[in-house]
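Review this:
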Amino acid sequence: MTNVVKKNRRGPRAAVPRLSAAEMELLEMLWREGAVALSQAHRALGLPIGYTTVQTRLNRLVKKGLVTRGEERPARYAAAVSRDEVCAGDLKLLVKRFSGGVVPLVAHLVRQRSLSAAEVDELKQLIAEAEARLTPRNKGPQR
C-alpha cells in the first residue's frame, strides 16, 4: 500500500483563507489526530453530524489546499497547514483592524484573562527577543 499524498495547491507562501468554525473544528481534529481515514475523522470529531457532511467538508478543505488527501484506500486526510499558519493570518487581520496596533491589543488580552506563570515567562521571553532585534535607531532615546 503506497502512501502518496496529493500536493498542496496553495503554493509556498499563499495566505491561509479565513476559516469557518466547522473548518476550524476539522483542522483542530487533524492537528490532534494526524492523518486519518474518513471514518476515523467522523468518530474523532465527536459531533452529531453525518458521515457525508464530514466528507464534504474535508473535500472542500482539500480544494482550498488546507488538507491533503492520500491516494491509498481508504484515503487518509491530513492537515496541510500548521496551527501557526492559520493563527498568523487571523492575527494579522486583527492587528490591522485594531486601530491602536499591537500594544493595546496585547494589553487587552492580558487584562481580560488570568495568565499562568509559564505564560508570563513566555511573554517576557518574546519581549526580550523583540528587544534584541531592535536596531539602535529603533530603540528610541536612552534613559
Notes: The longest strand covers residues 76-79. The CA atoms of residues 19 and 86 lie 9 Å apart.
